[in-house]
Amino acid sequence: MRPNRYKFLIALASVLLITGCVDSHQLERLGLITVIGFDLEKENEIKGTLVVSKFDPLEQVLTKQISSEANTIQTLRAEINLETDQQLVMGQLRSVVYSHELARKGIFQLVDALNRDPTVGNMVYLTIAEEDASSIVKVNESKVKVNIGTYLYNLIRQNVENEQLISPTLHEFNHSFADFGQDPVLPIIKADKENVSITGVALFNDDRMVARLDNDKLFYLKVLADKYRSGSKELAFNRQDFEKVIKNQIGRTDKDVYNKLFITIDNIQSDTKVTLTDKKNLVFKVEVYLKSRLLEATQRLDLGKPENVKFIEDKMSKEIEKQLKDLLVFFQENKVDPVGFGNEYMAKVRGEALENKNWKEIYKNAKFDVKVKNIISKTGALE
Question: Which residues have CB under 8 Å from 39's CB, separation 6+?
């Protein structure tokens, strides 16, 4: 059989298979929900705002925004169905947005409703709105140049792939929520006059948002809770502390544009090991190993001497170490454990029944011995 004919038969079989799946629901009769936003309308009532994509054989794909109020998601869908001539289906749901107010009160009921719907995939992205969810879902599509459901999905996906975010899928939220030893984190989304963007991450205690991290702290969260394979980070230092490695060229004087020294590293590979070293006093050793390339600096650095490179490595390690220690204290103060210290504790203290509330009481008294080793494997164009 000729290769082209073989490919044609495969393609034809695929079309017939797809057609067979939707024979009772013609595509133009379906409204494909791509994103849902949930707001707390009033006591015991939620407002759902969703974007529906529908297909017209004579036109391009059309989108429609629909809102309604109800007490449960199933009733909400029934109410919204009364406002459209198409049957609404969740099979193309890509993103869910919860309002800041709902996140503060708890989102388990709404997340669990997604879990119970067999048409909702576990790779749907969950997000938190800076304020109300409808402001995100109803954003003018002329701003984002695409269906907002697709835009949000791509926004989250590319930042996860570029190692800016910890993946916030429904599956990962369920895993962390059900695990007493680790708390979920979800990205915070904001819509303004010009753009829809990520402004930080929400930190959860159980299913309630109790604190947030701004974007400048996300690197340190990911170092502790995940791994970098090829990340990047800018670090700021007092310029005076680097005088011994700043390179002054004979016959010219560099003008000082910044009163600080900024260094950017990339190609970051990280590995973090958490060990409970003292059960009685609850001491955790946090060992962080980083390997990176020194990509850019706002001063000319003399990198020709091995001792200078070692000096920079040590300075960077100490700065990252300080930031990690401060972040761990912040986590304790807010009773959140996105790193998973509870998992390490329960693995070492076997045979003891431990509930989440009990772990949080223990966790607030924990101590952390943080050690960071950053190795500069390359110095890029700075050489």
Answer: 46, 47, 49, 99, 101, 102, 132, 133, 134
Q: How confident is the model at residue 354 (pLDDT cuts 50, 70, 90)?
A: low
- Pick the closest to residue 50 from 91, 87, 97, 86 (CA basis): 97
Separation between Cα atoms, residue 132 and residue 46, nearest integer Å: 12
Cα torsion for 295, 215, 197, 231, to the nearest 10°?
A: 30
Query: Token digits for 233?
Result: 């980070």
Higher-confidence residue of 278 and 356: namely 278
Q: Tell me the average pLDDT across 157-172.
A: 95
Please state the rounded mean pLDDT for residues 357-383.
Answer: 84
CA 329, CA 336: separation in Å to the nearest integer?
10
- State residue 290 phi and psi, 5-degree precision: -125, 140
pLDDT-derived band at 174 (thresholds 50, 70, 90) equals: very high
What is the rounded distance in angstroms from the CA atom of residue 367 to the CA atom of residue 205?
20
**Residue spans per domain, the chain:** 26-221, 227-382
Do residues 87 and 24 make contact, with C-beta atoms less than 8 angstroms apart?
no
Place of tokens 């700021």: 236
Starting at the edge strand found earlier in the chain, the sheet holding 231-238 runs 231-238, 260-278, 283-297, 367-378
Position 23 confidence tier, pLDDT thresholds 50, 70, 90: very low
CATH class of 227-382: alpha beta
Q: Whole-prediction pTM value?
A: 0.86
Q: Which two tokens stand for residue 274?
A: 């958490």
pLDDT of residue 249: 60
Length of the chain: 383
Q: Is 73 left (phi over 0), alpha (psi -120 to 50) or beta?
A: alpha
Beta strands 185-191; 125-129: pairing state:
parallel
pLDDT digits (tens, 9 = 90+) for 40-91: 988 778 899 988 887 766 666 677 888 888 887 778 878 887 877 778 888 8
CA distance 328 to 334: 10
In angstroms, what CA-CA distances link 346 with 277, 278, 316, 336, 353?
Answer: 13, 13, 33, 16, 9
